[in-house]
Amino acid sequence: MTDILKQLKRLADPAYRKFITPSVATVPAEQVIGVRVPAIRRLATSLNGTPEAEAFLGQLPHSTLEENHLHAFLLEKKRDYEDFIQSATAFLPYVNNWATCDMMSNRVMCREPQKAITQAYAWMDREHPFTVRYGIKVLMDQYLDSLFSVSQAQRVADLRREEYYIVMMQAWYFATALAKQPKSIFPFFEQDILTEGVFKKAVSKSLDSYRIPAETKEALRRLRKERVKG
Questions:
Q1: Alpha carbon of residue 87 to chain centroid
Q2: Which of 109, 125, 180, 229 could staple 116 via S-S, CB 3.0–4.6 A?
Q3: Is the dihedral of CA 172, 127, 58, 25 positive or negative?
Q4: Is 47 exposed, middle or buried (0-12, 13-18, 19+ CB in 10 A)?
Q5: Taking CA 126 as the corner, what is the angle to CA 148 and CA 72, rounded to the nearest 5 degrees?
């Protein structure tokens, strides 16, 4: 057992382990230690830049959920774009749950928006579902404001994958995009561009959003009824 794994085990909270295990269903229960996320972030901060951390980042695959979380939090501390991309691309195929995928920040990619969009598309073209999910997350996090273009949304819509965690991220993307870019995104709902699964989940998320106005929600309800009838 590595020293870092020992440190994580010392931070274990049995009650939290019981609580969190069902929510990461893609991770075997025996691989969940039960460490709260703030504690893992603090450990990442204390390890950042040390030889121990660099050795840990080279030890893939990890054996526990919390080691994957720690790996993600160490990666997001990288400040060099190319270093982050290389390290994230090596790590993503080993990510086996939505929590690790969604918690890893991609802020360093903001420094190179043209390169970053190409990298996000490359991740979206991979077979591994959580790599695809992370690529969509980059678009959702960084390209729905001044850097937005309809072609980006089309790339997300064009994904024809049935994996639950990809469909849910596509839906999350379109619900968020509808709130930020309503004129450009509403036609994706209106013109049957989205797959059935993405449409249903995106409508549901949009109806739950406080950022989407009541009239848009009513239009979505009408579209949902029409789609059911069709």
A1: 16
A2: 109
A3: positive
A4: buried
A5: 75
Helix (H) or strand (E) holding 123: helix 113-124
Q: Which residue has the tokens 């290389």?
A: 86
160 vs 198: CA distance, rounded Å? 10
Q: What angle do CA 92, 95, 101 make, to 5 degrees?
A: 85
Residues 6+ apart with CB under 8 A from 47: 4, 53, 56, 70, 74
The candidate with the shortest Cα–Cα distance to 106, out of 70, 138, 148, 139, is 138
Q: pLDDT tens for the chain, 230 residues: list them.
A: 589 999 999 999 999 999 999 999 999 999 999 999 999 999 999 999 999 999 999 999 999 999 999 999 999 999 999 999 999 999 999 999 999 999 999 889 999 999 999 999 999 999 999 999 999 999 999 999 999 999 999 999 999 999 999 999 999 999 999 999 999 999 999 998 999 999 999 999 999 999 999 999 999 999 999 988 76
146: DSSP letter: T
| pTM, to two decimals | 0.95
Whether 44 and 71 have beta carbons less than 8 Å apart is answered as no
3-class secondary structure, 14: helix
